[in-house]
Amino acid sequence: MRAAHADRAAEPSGGMPLLAVVGVTLLVQLVLQAYFFPLSALWDAARLVHIDAPFHQYQMEVARQLCAEQRLTGYDIFFAAGHLGGVSFNASAKLPALLACLDTASANIPVIYKQFSFWSGVLAPAMLVATCVLLRLPVSVAAVVALFSVLLWWTGAIRWYHAAGLVSYVIVAFASVPFAVAALRVCRRPTLWRLALLTVVAAIGLLVHPLFVVAAALIGLPLLVDELRAGLRIANVVAVVAVLLAGMLLLNGIWLWPSLTTPSFATIVHPYQRAVDPTLALQELLGLAPTAAGGSRLYNVLWIGALLCIGCWRGSARRALLALIAAAVLLMIWASFGAVIPALASLQPNRFSALAWLCLVVPAAAGVVAAAQQIPAAHGFGRWLRGAALLIVAGFLAFFVREAEREILAPAETGRYAVAAPEVKGEGGLSRPLLDFLGTQTDASARVFFELSLARVHDGGHMAGLYALASNREFIGGPYPFTDFASAWDDFAFGKPYAEHSPEQLNAFLDAYNIRWMLCHSTACRAAMAALPGVDKLADLGPVTAFVRAASPGFVVHGSARVVERCINRVTLADAAGSPLILRYHWVPGLVSVPPARIEAVDIVPGARPFIAIHDPPPDLTLSVGDGPGQACDARARPSP
């Protein structure tokens, strides 16, 4: 009787009931997202500005301007005295950047990014329910998966990642689970249309975020190993994997090639998501992990459910469910120890812990359903064990339903997993005064030293990119921390802490980069600037203090010239004379002069990238990456703050 009861729990349901659960999940998440954003904000000019969101909108604007010149990479003069921007400095915002290119209007970039974030949030939980469709699991399991997925969205690490602007990673993390299961089905019964459809999906996944490939491979490996042990033809696997890889590379070749063949602007090793921690899983179960998202105690439901799946679930999908559990273990091992290998640490292994828990959602739901259906037929210790496990699960779920309610409805001052409603808040109280200052107290004759903030004191996000583009000022600093020598964040500038620079050394760096204005938020930066000769305090702008130097040396090191125009992929000089003409702009590969002149890289500042030297310059010339006349700067629309 017990076996029969378990078999009934594992019997697949028809396709339409399962699709109905997918539809209901989409509807529920749509309603919740529509309230939280809210829906009306999707079409107005207010920006998403939390953590990485403004940085990605800066990347979209750079892409839009480059697309107007039919280029994927170009010379971004707004940061670090010039660097190669475009797809080579855009790992995770290529899809919204593509949409910005197709739309062409700068004013629509906030709307495009909000739409991308909103609809990713609507679709993500339903993708795990779609996995139930692919595995032909019962409707009851799909319903529990829907519940787990929605709760994880609002109360887990995924919630923090999405609100923090890691939208592309979140959507590919959810998509990689059904993708791996679908790939397994194609390996079992390969047909041309199935393989073509899967290849297109894989190519889109790679476009959205490059870590999609890693996620899909780590999930797919245990699934394929299990099927190979059960008799799957290895020739099918090799053929399908080869077509998928070739298709992904070919369909994405237009941006992959420049991304892989051009040097990265980010030459400083960042510390993000690369801790080695054997206790990571335990800390995440307690919601105390030192990683960015911190984990969630809701994960206890998933490991209990996974154990119930191992002990209780029977039926045709059992092997696939156990393989998903194995994939979760593999992902957690990778998340905990992957950064041991320095070459792999740049893949940010820690962030894969969130995906590991997502892999447990479907097996955990199956285990809970199976255990619940077996209780009437179970006896003795087995019955009590199932009952106790289900009571613990029910307790956690009740608590996290309340947590989800608090996340969505509680007042702004209440502690929560991510941000308070409304999610679309626009810029805060610092942006307008700071942009007014840049517009009235600075000019284009010199650069602004802009100290970045790991704690994001600039209205809660990495706002530097939008500030530079909106004010039309060149910043020394990168648009994001941990990029280049010519950058500054917190107690760090020009390659080392402020305390290790003498006033003479710091003054020399300010001269080398033609800096006249300095915007500091840290105590160390304020003290260092105030100690320099000829520097005066200009204003206090909330957490930011503005300083000004009595003079700056200009953009020319040797020779003479006037910078009469500069914008993305364009620096125009007039009255150029002297050979070589050496500029305080960094050289990048592919830089050309119109009319033609010989350009070479010259080292000036120890530890920095080389600068531009132009031999026998014509009196008037334009520097850019790539051939063609380009688009005049005054013909371009600047983004609003």
- Rg value: 27 Å
Largest sheet, if any? 6 strands, antiparallel
- State the end-to-end CA separation: 68 Å
Number of strands: 13
Strand % is 5-15%
Helix content, binned percent: 40-55%
Average pLDDT metric: 93
What form results from the Cα inertia axes? elongated
As residue ranges, the low-confidence spans are: 1-10
Tally of helical runs: 23
Helix/strand class: alpha+beta
Topology of this structure?
Elements: H1 2-10, H2 15-36, H3 53-68, E1 73-76, E2 83-86, H4 94-103, H5 109-135, H6 139-155, H7 157-163, H8 167-188, H9 192-208, H10 211-229, H11 234-251, H12 253-261, H13 280-285, H14 299-312, H15 318-337, H16 342-345, H17 352-359, H18 361-374, H19 380-409, H20 431-441, E3 447-450, H21 464-471, E4 475-476, H22 503-512, E5 515-520, H23 523-530, E6 535-541, E7 544-549, E8 556-567, E9 570-586, E10 591-594, E11 598-602, E12 611-615, E13 621-625
Parallel strand pairs: 3-4, 3-5
Antiparallel strand pairs: 1-2, 5-7, 6-7, 8-9, 9-12, 9-13, 10-13, 11-12
Helix pairs in contact: 1-18, 2-5, 2-6, 3-4, 3-21, 5-6, 5-8, 6-7, 6-18, 6-19, 7-8, 8-9, 8-10, 8-11, 9-11, 10-15, 14-18, 14-19, 15-17, 18-19
